[in-house]
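Aim 2 progress update. The chain analyzed this quarter is reproduced below.
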Amino acid sequence: MTPTTATNSVAIQAAQQFTPLELETRPTVDTAAAAHYLHLAQQTLRIYACRESGPLHPRRINGRLHWATADIRKLLGVG
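Predicted structure tokens:
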């Protein structure tokens, strides 16, 4: 397997672990899922939270960041 094929394989597996945004029923999602939906690095979302900047603001639940699914849909224009 070539390095490109291995990288593509990892990307495909990562994409398969998340529910499509249109089918997501949870009111909030964790940072990994939000980053996946927004096509951003997880660290970018953590910086948004730390600096209280960016297009989304997280909720802190038991010391962890959660991002409102409705806000993600609104930002992406998904019904």
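The two ends are 39 Å apart (CA to CA). Strands lie at 28-30, 59-61, 64-68. These observations will guide the mutagenesis experiments scheduled for the next reporting period.
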